[in-house]
Specification:
The chain is built from four helices and eight strands, in the order H-H-E-E-E-H-E-E-E-H-E-E. The protein is an alpha+beta fold. The protein has one domain. A hairpin with a 5-residue loop joins strand 7 and strand 8. Helix 1 runs antiparallel to helix 2 and helix 2 runs antiparallel to helix 4. The N and C termini lie far apart (60 Å).
Length: 131
Amino acid sequence: MKLTPLATTLLLLTFTTLPILADDYQDAVKCAQKDPASNSAIQAFCFKRNAQGITDNIHVPSPYASQGRRSTNGKTRASIKGTCNPPQWVPITYCNSQFHQMCAQSPRRNGWDRRNYGRRGCQEWRLERVR
């Protein structure tokens, strides 16, 4: 059986993203046990919508990323502040997995935390209480 370049690429993408998805699922469950509002804020932020539906174009810095999105109960916000130059793209997969990991590993009972990601740590990811 000979694989076409497209089939090879799809197989590589599948096998390299499966561990991320499995870990993300476990972290999302642990985060939901801590505080469902944290997962709600993550979902609202990472699944950015436009007129056509969900769009995968979160960039840091940007007004969308720094303003963030609130949970359905309005008490928790997910956002990414940044000083990246040029702006860096945050894919949906990494948006979810990194926020869920932050929440799951947070020492706080509600999962709130801050961490730096991106080239040279230019992205400050925040999961925090709305004041």
